[in-house]
Design brief:
Elements lengths: L6 H13 L7 H13 L1 H10 L7 H9 L6 E2 L1 H13 L6 E11 L5 E3 L2 E3 L16 E9 L5 E9 L4 H17 L2 E8 L3 H10 L11 E3 L7 E6 L1 H15 L1 E3 L5 E3 H14 L9 H4 L8 H7 L2 H12 L10 H16 L19 H17 L1 E3 L4 E3 L7 H20 L15 H9 L4 H19 L1
Length: 460
């Protein structure tokens, strides 16, 4: 950078910095410098050195953002940023967001600092609980009609019931509504506590009477649609398929995991891939069961096409009768693609929901719902519908997500040139934020503090 400036340009810039030293003492100046120091610290140090240390030291900036409270509970600074953002919006333009909820495990550790002991269960109410925290429950909002996200609360927990979670969600919705933020969806994963939570809120994910939404606690005329993280649902479906070995359709055709194994064995033997990414890692998924891409690459049209080619063209006997498996892979792949659209200009199944794609999207999701509803599995005694077994979570999740995605589109985007990117309502944003934190409880607090300071700039 320095080598690209002439001596006169460098002097002019130095004079400009010297004249504006007072700007650095203002709140706006603090915010700008915090953002640059967090995102590009090496570049910041370089510029600071080249201009004779006219800019504040990085430790000074750290002291500035340390004043952003990151204690457990609802973060005041986040709500202040949201309030300012809503106030700056043009009249008649809503701030529409998706609410994310997730938990991560933290190291069980007690620390003393700032005059108090840290490490106990803490909901930010000031009450002391002598139970050591094992998890951090994080809440975040992601804008649907803009491009920003911000965490606004976290709680240190050990165990928590569905009713307690529901109370936290209600309080979050009420606070966000008071600041002018309209929340249209709630996204979480599939533990039993979360099913109890959505029931407590007023939704019903039972397949026999599914109602994947609940009334907004501040305005019953508004619906908050429930979404179960599709990446998590895809992994659960892969786990159920591989564990069962054989699934059966309503008309008695079998969907066999064995065909996937045969395809991998064939490709390993020949040293060639039939246009797919299938590897031994996909077969031995238990060693890496948290990796979403292993499930997504397995439920893919490329794997389905390879199976069909081996049966129809190569006539290999070990692939005879794989048509139902091929159809199943195509169906799940299509449903996952339309539920995970990211690009407003996407094509094919990865296109967002809009007037020109709505009918096709509805047909794909309806086909997936019909397929999943009719899947049967052997429980050791007889064939029963998979949605009536302990492996029902992925079935409920896919069906609820399909209905909620279409309902959100109908509520918000039913007008020309208003594409609905389904991915913004899912937890990839929150997962990315959580990956920046660390599993140590005290370090999680510090990372939360720094990341919130950065996200405030993103919202503003």
């Amino acid at each position: 950078m320095g080598e690209q400036l002439t001596p006169s340009q460098r002097q002019d810039l130095q004079d400009l910095v010297n004249r504006n030293r007072d700007v650095f003492s203002t709140e706006a100046g603090h915010t700008d410098l915090i953002q640059h120091q967090i995102v590009t610290e090496p570049a910041y140090e370089y510029v600071r050195e080249k201009f004779n240390f006219a800019l504040p030291h990085t430790q000074t900036i750290c002291n500035w953002y340390s004043s952003v409270s990151a204690d457990p509970g609802f973060t005041v600074a986040s709500f202040t940023a949201l309030k300012n953002h809503v106030a700056e919006k043009k009249e008649g333009k809503e701030t529409v967001c998706a609410l994310m909820m997730d938990e991560m495990y933290v190291h069980q550790q007690m620390d003393f600092g700032s005059g108090q002991i840290h490490g106990y269960v803490d909901f930010g109410t000031g009450e002391i609980d002598n139970t050591v925290a094992t998890q951090a429950m994080v809440l975040m909002v992601v804008s649907i009609n803009e491009s920003w996200k911000i965490p606004f609360a976290y709680f240190l927990i050990a165990s928590i019931t569905g009713k307690e979670k529901a109370n936290i969600i209600r309080e979050s919705l009420c606070r966000l509504h008071a600041f002018g933020v309209r929340v249209v969806s709630l996204t979480c994963d599939g533990p039993s506590q979360n099913f109890a939570m959505v029931r407590e809120l007023g939704a019903d994910l039972n397949i026999s009477n599914m109602r994947p939404y609940f009334p907004h606690p501040e305005d019953p005329t508004l619906k908050v649609h429930v979404l179960l993280d599709p990446c998590h649902m895809l992994k659960l479906l892969r786990n159920a398929f591989a564990t069962a070995g054989v699934l059966e359709t309503e008309d008695g055709k079998q969907i066999k995991w064995q065909y996937i194994e045969h395809l991998n064995t064939l490709q390993e033997k020949e040293g060639l891939r039939l246009g797919n990414k299938l590897r031994m890692a996909h077969i031995q998924w238990r060693k890496q069961k948290m990796k979403v891409h292993l499930a997504a690459q397995l439920f893919s049209s490329s794997v389905a096409d390879a199976l069909e080619y081996c049966e129809q063209e190569l006539k290999y006997p070990q692939f005879r009768g794989c048509a139902a498996t091929v159809q199943f892979l195509h169906t799940i792949d299509g449903a996952f693609d339309v539920l995970n659209s990211r690009n407003p200009l996407g094509k094919g199944l990865k296109a967002p929901i809009k007037p020109s794609t709505k009918d096709r999207t509805e047909a794909i999701l309806q086909q997936a719902e019909t397929c999943l509803r009719r899947l049967k599995v052997n429980n050791g005694k007889q064939l029963v519908h998979m949605h009536s077994t302990a492996k029902k979570t992925s079935i409920y999740g896919f069906i609820a997500n399909g209905r909620s995605a279409l309902n959100i589109y109908n509520d918000l985007f039913e007008r020309p040139n208003a594409p609905c990117r389904t991915e913004v309502a899912y937890r990839s944003h929150q997962k990315a934020w959580l990956q920046c934190a660390r599993p140590l409880r005290d370090v999680f607090r510090g990372c939360s503090e720094e990341l919130e300071a950065s996200h405030h700039r993103e919202v503003e």
